[in-house]
Amino acid sequence: MIPYSFMVLGNAAILLAGLVLLVKGSDYFVKAASTIAKKLGVSEFVIGLTLVAVGTSIPELASSIAASLQQASGIVIGNIVGSNIANIALIVGLAATLSPIKTAHEMLKRDGYIMLFAALLFFAFAFNEALSRLEAAVFVLLYVAYVFFLFEEIPTNKGRFYFKEFITYFVKFEYLNSMKQKINSASRNRNSDLSEEQVQARKGLGRDVLTLVAGSAAVILGARYFVEQSIFFAQLLEIPDTVIGTTLVAVGTSLPELMVTVSAARNGYGSIALGNVIGSNITNIFLILGVSGLLFPITVEEISIFLTAPFMIFISTVLLVFIATGWEIKRWEGAVLIFFYAVFLVVLLQMT
Fold first, then answer.
1. How confident is the model over 131-150, as pLDDT tens digits?
2. Mean model confidence pLDDT for the chain
3. How far apart are CA 107 and CA 97, in angstroms?
4. What pLDDT is recorded for position 135?
5. How far is CA 208 from CA 47, 212, 252, in A?
6. How confident is the model at residue 157 (pLDDT cuts 50, 70, 90)?
């Protein structure tokens, strides 16, 4: 008879192994997929649309889909909201304490406002304690529109494309026309003769495909075991799924953002560091929550409505205020973000 404590340690080991498979598998998957796309002559636009834009959010996507298939709504919501909170309060906070993060006007007036809009829209949809398939479909359409909006060519006489232009772009379905143009352009490029350089570049494609398959298998297995063991520990400790999702799952799946952001900040690429976090937060709500909600309607618990979602809106607003005051996130502001995250965790654990 195996002692109960050893069984729990075994479950903890499986949880950790699942997380490692999830994070490393997503890394190999993105690299291999990007290499294959370039070798096949796929446009930079398509690579950005399907890979780079989702990149570091693959762990959240895989774990949220796995949780959705098991109808574990608390894990799905907790993972998304918790990841967004951790991305700002923990990851940006830590990066800023290492090195002040320079920002740009566009980061606030376009992507920053869209991030805040996504958080507010989620709160509005979740207020009736459920996220329907129709609302999930709206999220997915918003993500598609957002990605195409990023690649729009800006007429010289129209200034910049900011949040107001994005809403107009979405409401008028202008992204459908953009999609058609990009598909036609990709089709013309595919039908053209391959150059000698492209022929040489396609060598080693088989190895890249094997890496892609191995990476995707690792992501699938990692997501399955990570979510299963997260649910196990939630039930064992009698902690709500939402809390486990907001803490353990959220921080675990945010490791890619943490590594990318801290590395970028330490090397002086503040805009990349902050852009990675803001883009990931938009992707988490629009794409990942949207796809998860399309699989199964999601139940939203009261703790999400009265604590985690409002705090996500609050910390997003704080970040935008820090960006707007001097166009730099200073070290002391990074420390404030980390302090807010610590307070949030204390309040969250006290409410369970």
1. 999 999 999 999 999 888 87
2. 81
3. 20
4. 96
5. 16, 6, 27
6. very low
3-state DSSP assignment of residue 183: helix
**Alpha-carbon torsion (116, 89, 305, 321), positive or negative:** negative
From 95, 103, 79, select the one nearest 275 (Cα to Cα). 103
Length of the chain: 352
Q: Where are the alpha helices (DSSP H) in 192-240?
A: 196-201, 205-236
Amino acid identity for residue 172 in this structure? K
Q: Which amino acid is at 184?
A: N
Nearest to 300 by CA among 23, 56, 78, 39: 78
pTM over 0.70: yes
The residue assigned the tokens 């039908």 is: 191
pLDDT at position 42: 58
Q: Are the C-beta atoms of 116 and 313 separated by less than 8 Å?
A: yes
Domains of the chain in start order, with CATH, are: 4-350 (1.20.1420.30)
Dump pLDDT digits (tens) for 169-204: 999 888 888 877 776 765 565 555 555 555 555 667
Position 111, amino acid: D
- 26 contacts 51 by C-beta, under 8 angstroms: no
DSSP 297: -
Name the token pair of 266.
């330490």
Q: What was the pLDDT predicted at 46?
A: 47
Q: Does the pLDDT of residue 284 top 70, yes or no?
A: yes
User: Cβ distance 177 to 149 under 8 Å?
Assistant: no
- In 3D space, the residue among 253, 275, 300 whose CA is nearest the CA of residue 101 turns out to be 275
pLDDT higher than 50, residue 45: no
Is 290 strand, coil or helix? helix
How is residue 121 written in tokens? 């829209």
What DSSP letter does each residue of 303-315 carry, written as one string? HIIIIIHHHHHHH
**Residue partners of 50: CB distance under 8 A and separation at least 6:** 33, 37
Computed from CA positions of residues 175, 176, 181, 184, in that sequence, does the dihedral angle turn out positive or negative? positive
Residue 15 pLDDT class (50, 70, 90 cuts): confident
Which residues are paired to 298 by β-bridges?
A: 131
| Tokens describing residue 347 | 């309040």
